[in-house]
């Protein structure tokens, strides 16, 4: 992603993402923002995520995701690849310890980036405290509604069921997550795809451990705003999807009344059983509401069995009020006037995209940061409902009607207010706008202080 016509004195920044769609997309947006600010950039991609982007629907062999003996060390070391410009700073995904370790070994400044929410990072940081206090691991189903009291700022509302499933056993995943979260507070700074008005309370606690935190999100809105201000065009976002986008859903949305459609998507990783698919399907049809549902290949029943397995009332209800696609242009969908609610897995990117467009949410988290995000959506931010640990057609039907009818005004008021704050933070003088400028200046200052 090196840009032409940059001053020779501009620092060369290597950006090293975690190879998943959400992380790569977030860091690509950060990379373009930094390029707009005049920095020289190299975006380090893995073979398998590159193949996913150019050939949709390939699935990774996790054993080959990153080769620790690959070109990373040569790229950043003084005896690196001859034609490769010297690396002055690394922005590494904080979930990849190898990048941080290599940067520290060769003496190059490293700034970490996390695509997950600040509240999730802070909860992970507190894992050792929870273990020491006997709050982890979670001991069983009867323990799920017990409050967690050893995460500063979350003592009154975070329950055991709001933590990821790996908090239920004392294993290497739990220990590694805590180690990585604490390591995120080392180095020259931490960049987060969030904004102060959304997670200010959590950020104030985090800054007691690391004062140099750059909140620059929502990144997709921030990039859109800066490109508009500079009269430039946003790259085609479809090219950053590992699944082929079906844009026909936009034409379908054009025919629906304002605020009448529930958008349903569980992201690029979650896997649902056929039973879960049918419970959601019955709930959506029985709600009587219009719906646009993203069902990736492999999540639906096998095509050869569709005629036998799908009840006639689902086929009829979907034909009358629904639209099902294999993948959708999510930012455009959420920004469409016909969308009135979002049934989501509560990934951080999806949550932020919904926040930006002022769309209330029903949250059905799958793993990682999503359980914590869903609790904040419902309990802290008042932007929707949390349906975690439930997959029942009657619950789905009730929550859809609560979101779209019974409590619509309540949630829409909160969502509209937060969307306005999101827009303000990425405009000139806003917190995220200023933090990005500060990040750029700090990178340039590193370059000067190290005599590059």
Automatic annotation (TrEMBL):
<keyword id="KW-0328">Glycosyltransferase</keyword>
<comment type="similarity">
    <text>Belongs to the UDP-glycosyltransferase family.</text>
</comment>
<dbReference type="InterPro" id="IPR002213">
    <property type="entry name" value="UDP_glucos_trans"/>
</dbReference>
<dbReference type="Pfam" id="PF00201">
    <property type="entry name" value="UDPGT"/>
</dbReference>
<protein>
    <recommendedName>
        <fullName>Glycosyltransferase</fullName>
        <ecNumber>2.4.1.-</ecNumber>
    </recommendedName>
</protein>
<dbReference type="InterPro" id="IPR035595">
    <property type="entry name" value="UDP_glycos_trans_CS"/>
</dbReference>
<keyword id="KW-0808">Transferase</keyword>
């Amino acid at each position: 992603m090196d840009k032409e016509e940059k001053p020779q004195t501009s620092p060369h920044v290597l950006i090293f993402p975690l190879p998943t769609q959400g992380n790569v997309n977030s860091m690509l947006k950060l990379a373009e923002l930094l390029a707009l600010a005049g920095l020289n950039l190299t975006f380090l991609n893995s073979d398998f995520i590159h193949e996913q982007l150019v050939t949709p629907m390939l699935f990774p062999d996790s054993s080959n995701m990153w080769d620790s003996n690959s070109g990373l060390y040569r790229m950043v070391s003084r005896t690196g690849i001859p034609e490769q410009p010297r690396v002055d700073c690394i922005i590494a995904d904080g979930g990849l310890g190898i990048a941080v370790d290599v940067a520290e070994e060769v003496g190059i400044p490293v700034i970490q980036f996390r695509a997950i929410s600040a509240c999730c990072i802070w909860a992970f940081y507190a894992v050792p405290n929870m273990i020491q206090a006997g709050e982890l691991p979670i001991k069983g189903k009867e323990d799920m509604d017990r409050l967690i009291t050893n995460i500063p700022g979350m003592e009154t509302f975070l329950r055991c069921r709001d933590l990821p499933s790996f908090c239920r056993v004392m294993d290497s995943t739990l220990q590694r997550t805590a180690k990585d979260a604490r390591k995120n507070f080392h180095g020259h700074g931490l960049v987060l795809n969030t904004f102060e008005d959304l997670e200010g309370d959590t950020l104030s606690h985090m800054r007691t451990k690391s004062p140099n935190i750059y909140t620059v999100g929502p990144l997709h809105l921030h990039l859109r705003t800066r490109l508009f201000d500079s009269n430039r065009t946003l790259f085609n976002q479809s090219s950053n999807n590992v699944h082929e986008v079906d844009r026909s859903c936009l034409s379908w949305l054009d025919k629906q009344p304002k605020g009448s459609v529930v958008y349903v998507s569980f992201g690029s990783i979650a896997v649902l059983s056929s039973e879960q698919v049918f419970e959601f399907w019955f709930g959506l049809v029985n709600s009587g509401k219009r719906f646009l549902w993203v069902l990736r290949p492999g999540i639906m029943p096998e095509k050869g069995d569709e005629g036998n397995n799908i009840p006639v009332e689902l086929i009829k209800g979907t034909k009358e009020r629904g639209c099902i696609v294999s993948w959708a242009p999510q930012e455009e969908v959420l920004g469409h006037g016909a969308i009135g609610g979002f049934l989501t897995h509560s990934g951080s990117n999806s949550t932020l995209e919904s926040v930006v467009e002022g769309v209330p949410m029903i949250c059905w988290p799958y793993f990682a940061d999503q359980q914590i995000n869903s609790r904040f959506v419902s309990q802290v931010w008042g932007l929707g409902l949390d349906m975690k640990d439930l997959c029942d057609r009657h619950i789905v039907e009730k929550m859809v009607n609560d979101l779209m009818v019974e409590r619509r005004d309540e949630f829409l008021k909160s969502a509209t207010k937060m969307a306005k704050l999101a827009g303000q933070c990425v405009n000139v003088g806003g917190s995220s706008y200023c933090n990005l400028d500060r990040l750029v200046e700090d990178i340039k200052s590193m370059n000067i202080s190290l005599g590059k």
